[in-house]
Amino acid sequence: MEKILERPRKFHITTFGCQMNEHDSEIMAGMLSEKGYEQASSREEADIVIFNTCSIRENADKRFFGTLGQLKKRKMGDKAEFTVCVCGCMMQQQHIVDTLKEKYPWVDVVFGTHNLHKLPQLLENLYTQQKKQLEIWPEGGDIVEELPARRLFRHKSFVNIMYGCNNFCSYCIVPYTRGRERSRKPEEIVREVKSLARDGVKEITLLGQNVNSYKGCGRDGQADFTDLIYMLAEIDGIERIRFMTSHPKDLSDKLIDAFKNCDKLCKYIHLPVQSGSNRILKAMNRKYTREAYLELVRKLREAVPDIAISTDIIVGFPGETEEDFEDTLDLAHRVGYDSAFTFLYSIRQGTPAARAEDQIPEEIKHERFNRLVEVVNESSAEKNRSYRGKTKMVLVDGISRSKEGTCEGRTDEFKLVNFEGNPGLAGSIIAVKITDSNTFSLSGERE
Hints:
By secondary structure, the protein is of the alpha/beta class. The chain has helices at residues 19-34, 58-69, 72-76, 94-103, 119-129, 174-178, 186-198, 225-233, 253-261, 278-284, 290-303, 322-335, 362-385; strands spanning 10-15, 38-39, 48-53, 83-88, 109-111, 133-135, 156-160, 162-163, 182-183, 203-207, 215-218, 221-224, 240-244, 268-270, 308-315, 339-344, 391-399, 406-410, 416-420, 429-437, 442-446. The chain has a six-stranded parallel β-sheet, with helices on both faces. It has a five-stranded mixed beta barrel with strand order 17-18-19-21-20.
């Protein structure tokens, strides 16, 4: 790609939210790098600051606006060349864009989730026309293929397989910000993963708002999500396949069998339950019951007894009674999760749940949240203790963030492992004997 700059400007991307956003940021970094921009290690060093926003929960909104506000002094000062860009899910909501224009008029570039690939052009327009750029598409067009990405790790990569969501859970803003489901063609995904394998990638994580509703229409006909997994498992060099996130209503027996029969498919699944109460699940429009969810867990563990299962749980959904919450605690006990992401219900403007009159008081939400965290942390600690004395194959990510002189990596079951090592081990898959554990990680010794 032709460089558009006479001198390199430095950019920094701050990412809020999910793995989809993380990968979107990698793509933006790849596009800008190809255009001659350089990546800065901090916002302070950057000429261009980009915020990739998340709209899932209110605290992400507050964190974004708080961080954005910190740049006003610099933007209004002597740094005439300083550029501020905002993109992502929040920008697909008109009331957020209106707030941005009213209270943060010094922002230079605003775009949404559907025109991510336009970032280099928007920056070029800004610099050549000396005019602020606001371009938000209400819906996605054709999927743009072969966009470059600048990965955080050389040995593993995210791979988008689909975009959008058709589920319309009553609390969730994603269908409104990411649009309807659109699946990539299987041959395009295979092409990308083959390219990643040639570049040294050993582990891929397949991404989508609901990956197991993937329906790819390719040259050889229709391919479902499990078909795609088997296609990718045939690619030399790829040793591990992960995916997220999945919806319980679409988890098929065919996919469950793949955990048993496909050696490259990691023995880990993130299966959001959100609530253990049938009444609340119906109000959430989740389209399954607690009994159906527990049956899925039974089938998964029957197929792979040691499979690791994580989840998402929302506390304080409108109308949630103490009995409803007790059902959630009971389900968490029954499943025995390896880990759980627990959240206080957050009103999202434009969703059906936001209009509910029976909102739960904050103090009750927090009290229930603390009780739930105690249960899931106890379960996580117990699961991790069961790894002591076992030898696990660990894909090494690099130097540990928690202890000097150690490396960290992940087991097949996505367990974080710390052990003595050096940076040269990054990207290797090595045997580690687990010697200790805590609630969130394992410790071990190389064999």
